[in-house]
Design brief:
alpha+beta, Glycosyltransferase, 3-stranded mixed β-sheet, two-stranded antiparallel ribbon, 11% strand
Length: 470
């Protein structure tokens, strides 16, 4: 039976698992990826692997490794493996990162040879991917309370020269390569980089000014009557920082970011429901598109507004990554996918990275970062474990400028006088152009090797939204 035919009959099926049973399956399967698809000497986690296991070209991702280190903490707490084995794996990984990995000003390259830790694929030094790695490192330091782990984790986090990556500005450069130096593009608009700025401001050895937090632009977006801070980007930008940082009941001068991600997740679900007019596989019970594998390679897609060549594909990590924000809607979507499509999309490591019920295509792969966000957010939804462990560390604590508030009617405060809350954009329902967007007027949105996109301006057809990039 093809995926295309099964979607026509999906109403005949009913979820067979309880909420907790499904989340346990998701976490156990993801843990198996992080345990198996890791170099046994270095502890570096493969960027991707076959959904049924193996097949990695030997290229590791430091972002996947950051998720993987956190996954080991979860697996230790839930006893997915003998705890002594997990402790040994963590200690070995941190020792390698501290002593043997190739670094530049304390930063690792984004993609590295899994056996040596040396730069691979002419990769860049990416501040955000290093931030993800450090979140995993710091989670291990706080959770295990073992002397060697604490020593090496502290060494890894303390050596990062955050001011260097500012490159003379007040926002981080997008990346750095030895061939040409720093990119002219910057992490200067709201996205997953919240974790980057908070880690750098909180660094005990190489901190950046707290004013850098305020230098990031926070455009407002309105969709379906919902107003929130966002940029034209996949849904993961509202998820990744929240995997470790507990933003609940807190706000700064601009937003309550947890509530902001709740609103963004609801808006994304409504966006998918609207897309159901063109792609009948989308509905209130089957939704979720974020950067993922596709039949044409790696794609950054999602919305609102429409981003990338959306073709009816579904990405399970999109709804899974929003479990703490939209639990009932997310778990319903995940149950529906699990029960209706079964072994066509559920493999050894859980859900395949993406699939298209309309064409019958299903990815052969899983990606470490997508399994990672699914596992961590599932655990936070179940027990708040990652938040509780990570937030013990100094670099994860919120400092001056933050207010604790038990409830707020709006996700952001009245900041109309702030130059950083600018560009309020109304995304009109039903006005989408379903072709390839003129994305940043440069190269295709398709990114087979997941390299950073060079950009000057984002122009999204079907809306009035234009984000100018410095």
């Amino acid at each position: 039976k093809t995926l295309a035919s099964s979607v026509l009959a999906r109403s005949q099926y009913a979820p067979a698992l309880s909420d907790d049973q499904l989340l346990e399956e998701i976490e156990r399967a993801a843990f198996e990826f992080f345990w198996n698809e890791t170099n046994p000497v270095t502890g570096l986690v493969m960027d991707k692997a076959n959904a049924d296991g193996g097949g990695s070209p030997g290229i590791a991702s430091i972002a996947a490794t950051g998720f993987g280190l956190t996954a080991l903490c979860i697996g230790h707490q839930r006893k997915y493996r003998p705890q002594a084995q997990i402790e040994q794996r963590v200690a070995k990984t941190l020792r390698f990162l501290a002593q043997d990995a190739q670094v530049e000003h304390g930063f690792l390259y984004h993609f590295v040879n899994a056996a040596t830790g040396e730069r691979a694929r002419a990769s860049e030094i990416s501040p955000i991917d290093n931030a993800i790695l450090l979140c995993g490192v710091l989670t291990c330091r706080e959770y295990f309370k073992i002397a060697g782990i604490h020593r090496d984790a502290t060494a890894i986090s303390s050596r990062v020269d955050w001011p260097w990556a500012l490159n003379g500005g007040n926002t981080f450069a997008l990346d750095w390569k030895p061939e040409h130096g720093f990119s002219r593009l910057r992490w200067d608009s709201y996205c997953e980089s919240m974790m980057l700025y908070l880690l750098a401001i909180g660094s005990p050895t190489h901190s950046i000014p707290a004013e850098c937090w305020n230098a990031v632009r926070r455009p407002k977006m309105v969709y379906g009557g919902r107003q929130y801070v966002s940029s034209p980007a996949p849904l993961f930008v509202h998820q990744f920082s929240h995997a470790w940082f507990d933003f609940r009941d807190k706000h700064d001068d601009y937003a309550n970011y947890f509530e902001n991600s709740m609103i963004a997740s609801h808006a994304h679900r409504e966006f998918c429901v609207e897309l159901g007019q063109k792609f009948p596989c989308y509905s209130g019970d089957v939704w979720g598109i974020t950067a993922s594998d596709s039949s044409a390679g790696y794609v950054a897609w999602g919305g609102p507004p429409l981003l990338g060549p959306i073709d009816g594909s579904l990405v399970p990590a999109a709804s899974a990554g929003s479990l703490p924000f939209t639990f009932r809607e997310s778990i319903t979507a995940l149950k529906t996918l699990r029960s209706h499509y079964g072994s066509q999309i559920w493999k050894q490591y859980g859900f395949v990275d993406a699939f298209n019920p309309l064409t019958g295509w299903a990815s052969k792969y899983v990606l470490g970062i997508d399994l990672g966000i699914s596992m961590l957010m599932a655990e936070n939804a179940r027990s708040q474990f990652v938040w509780n462990a990570f937030m013990q560390n100094r670099m994860g604590r919120f400092r001056q400028g933050w207010t604790w508030k038990s409830n707020s009617a709006m996700c952001f405060k009245d900041s109309s006088t702030s130059e950083f809350l600018q560009g309020s954009s109304v995304i009109t329902k039903g006005s989408f152009d379903f072709g390839y967007p003129d994305f940043w007027n440069t190269e295709s949105i398709l990114m087979p090797d997941r390299q950073k996109i060079s950009a000057s301006a984002a122009i999204i057809p079907g809306s009035s939204l234009t984000i100018n990039r410095k």
